[in-house]
Model the fold of this input.
Amino acid sequence: MDALTVIAVASIVTAGLTTGIGAIAPALGEGRAVSNALSALAQQPDAAPTITRTLFVGLAMIESIAIYAFVISIILIYANPFWNHVVAGAAGGH
Done:
């Protein structure tokens, strides 16, 4: 295997793992946040607007983690800095 193939395979595998693992933690966090919010709403129905507003802000913050992981995986596939380095080295070496 040449260096370009190794970089391509490593980039694709890493991008897949980044997206997969990067989506697990936010999904668990969102489930726990919604569960706790529903419990709080059941105990304090009068505080529903405050709990709901805080829940949505928290969910947006949690979801940003998954978005960052997705952005990193897109960078690994389409704008990989290692790819450019290897291509420049291969062009200069021949």
Helices lie at 3-43, 48-78, 81-93.
